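Whiteboard transcription, Tuesday session. T.W. wrote the structure tokens on the left side:
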């Protein structure tokens, strides 16, 4: 008797009583293929997906950690890919620099290149933007994350000013009126995120800031969300903490993010950020990539996901099941696909 193949919802726990005691032991035939996909979520929140006793039950797995999973689901990157690739939609360094405005810091000791006299190109014409009090934008709604993002930000803010428009941490500011209008969030809060276009509001705000905080919910390999891609696309240097292998994913051949993993303490990170904010030439170096082709590593990522468009989890399982029906090794079918799409 032949039992049907299944695709597990990896967002639900892969329990022993269901997947091992019942499905695997009683309702699995030689042509039954199992797969699961953990899409847009970090494995750190779903530990059952990394349990070998359970993950080995599955013939095909999709997830963001390449050391664990065979296939990588479509990443958050592709929401902003046209602004990241070497295309006309990508902002040039000059466009990014023209979007920056004077910073109305309450600390007169702070030095920002944006507050220096304008040059002949007319940069920084908009000097009346009163809501920008620091060089750094922070917007987050989830205050209890495995990365301990809020705790890190509290420590960082002891050494550098941050404009905080989120739900977490100290000194929360009201959103500027034009941002509320852009995202359609009048009379709503961050608790109502699903009811308005928060991404449009964040992009409109981030383009004027020198830096944007981009700390992920978890610090796991290959899990990189819109927190990085939004500021990178709109021209605000991401201050990043997240995937340990983040540099495998970046489009730039030179530095284009401030990687908090490189600093021993938040104080050290703050000192570096202040140096970049004060030095226009140094700041521009983080945007040099905008006028260059993407890195070879990044092009390999694009090639991988272009090829992966031909292979859904459902189709791979179907093909493997057909191989088993023909008394052929289904693993050979999967190996052929893995060879076709390659790695990055």
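and on the right, the sequence the group agreed on:
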């Amino acid at each position: 008797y032949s039992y049907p193949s299944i695709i597990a919802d990896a967002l639900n726990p892969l329990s022993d009583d269901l997947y091992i005691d019942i499905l695997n032991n009683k309702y699995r035939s030689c042509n039954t293929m199992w797969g699961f996909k953990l899409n847009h979520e970090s494995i750190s929140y779903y530990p059952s997906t990394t349990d070998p006793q359970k993950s080995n039950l599955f013939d095909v797995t999709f997830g963001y950690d390449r050391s664990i999973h065979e296939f990588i689901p479509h990443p958050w990157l592709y929401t902003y890919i046209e602004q990241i690739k070497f295309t006309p939609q990508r902002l040039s360094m000059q466009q990014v620099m023209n979007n920056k405005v004077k910073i109305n810091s309450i600390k007169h000791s702070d030095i920002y290149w944006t507050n220096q006299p304008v040059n002949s190109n007319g940069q920084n014409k908009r000097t009346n933007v009163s809501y920008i009090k620091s060089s750094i934008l922070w917007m987050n709604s989830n205050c209890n994350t495995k990365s301990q993002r809020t705790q890190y930000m509290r420590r960082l803010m002891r050494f550098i000013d941050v404009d905080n428009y989120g739900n977490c941490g100290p000194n929360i500011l009201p959103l500027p009126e034009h941002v509320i209008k852009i995202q359609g969030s009048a009379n709503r809060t961050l608790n109502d995120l699903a009811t308005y276009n928060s991404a449009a509001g964040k992009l409109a705000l981030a383009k004027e800031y020198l830096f944007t905080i981009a700390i992920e919910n978890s610090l796991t390999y290959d899990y990189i969300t819109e927190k990085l891609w939004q500021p990178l696309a709109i021209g605000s240097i991401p201050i990043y903490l997240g995937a340990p292998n983040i540099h495998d994913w970046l489009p730039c051949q030179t530095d284009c993010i401030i990687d908090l993993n490189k600093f021993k303490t938040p104080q050290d990170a703050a000192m570096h950020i202040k140096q970049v904010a004060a030095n226009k030439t140094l700041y521009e170096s983080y945007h040099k990539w905008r006028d260059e082709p993407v890195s070879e590593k990044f092009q390999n990522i694009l090639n991988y996901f272009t090829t992966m468009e031909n292979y859904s989890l459902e189709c791979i399982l179907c093909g493997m099941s057909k191989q088993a029906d023909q008394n052929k090794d289904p693993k050979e079918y999967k190996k052929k696909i893995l060879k076709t799409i390659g790695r990055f």
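Someone added at the bottom: Strands lie at 6-9, 34-37, 60-62, 136-138, 163-164, 211-215, 237-241, 258-259.
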